[in-house]
Amino acid sequence: MSKKESPIKTIVVAVVLSLVCSVVVSFAAIQLKPKQELNKELDRKRNILIAARLLEQGGTQSEIDELFKQVETKVVDLSSGEFIEPPKGFNQRKFAKDPKTNKVLQGQEDIAGIKRRSQFANVYLVHNGDELDTIVLPVHGYGLWSTMYGFLALEPDTKTVVGFKYYEQGETAGLGGEIENPTWLSQWPNKQVLNEQGDPVIKLVKGSAQTENQVDGLSGATLTSNGVENTLHYWLGEDGFGPFLERVRAGEI
């Protein structure tokens, strides 16, 4: 009789242990989630500040929070370029996945390779007193292996780069992954991304950049370089932040 009960007891013990472990893991995940969200928010602020050249690298939470007081976060309707009240539960990535709040991109329209985008987007305005000092735009587009996320900071003329910061990507380490290399990013300040008509003109070139609208491409990573260029052309164009930037140039912002 005991021999017949032994397998049953083993199964019961295994089930109980599995349930206990599941509860422990779930509890730990719930407890850690608020901290993870705080760290994610801190990283977002840090990367915006780095793009705007208000912060080098690193920075403590108190330093970042203090510097970020200079930054005003707004939501833009991309079709009109106008500021709107943030929609309930607004999250740009989540809105890009929702058919009710996204725009599907097809063919030549989708030069950034993102397939769809949110109808709305965050913009970050850095003020110096009452004056607009820097505009920070979130941008993303496909490289060779991954969607690359970054922040592009512009002067109020909307043409001149203040700084550029990629913070999330899955490109090849040592090649396309160099988009996060501070040395490569250091060549972006003062580059011209738009011409006088407001059209995107930035180019990533092989070899050395010769003009103010050229940036050295990534050695051995042509497709990633193309992805960066296409990303900026999309988000600075009419289907991206173009209408908003036009309003800035017109003095409406």
What does this structure look like?
This protein has a six-stranded antiparallel sheet with strand order 2-1-5-6-7-8. Strands 3-4 form a two-stranded antiparallel sheet. A two-stranded parallel sheet has the order 9-10. The chain is α+β, with helices and mostly antiparallel strands and 253 residues long. The chain has one domain. The protein has six helices and ten strands; from the N terminus they run H-H-E-E-H-E-E-E-E-E-E-H-E-E-H-H. The mean pLDDT is 92. It comes from Kangiella spongicola.
Q: Please estimate the helix content.
A: 25-40%
Query: On the 0-100 scale, what is the average pLDDT?
Result: 92
- What's the main sheet like? 6 strands, antiparallel
N-to-C SSE string, H for helix and E for strand: HHEEHEEEEEEHEEHH
Structural class: alpha+beta
Please provide the count of β strands. Answer: 10
Query: What would you call the shape?
Result: globular
Roughly how many Å is the radius of gyration? 23 Å
Number of helices: 6
Main sheet: strand order:
2-1-5-6-7-8
Distance between the termini: 83 Å
Low-confidence stretches: none
Question: What number of domains?
Answer: 1
Q: What percent strand?
A: 15-25%
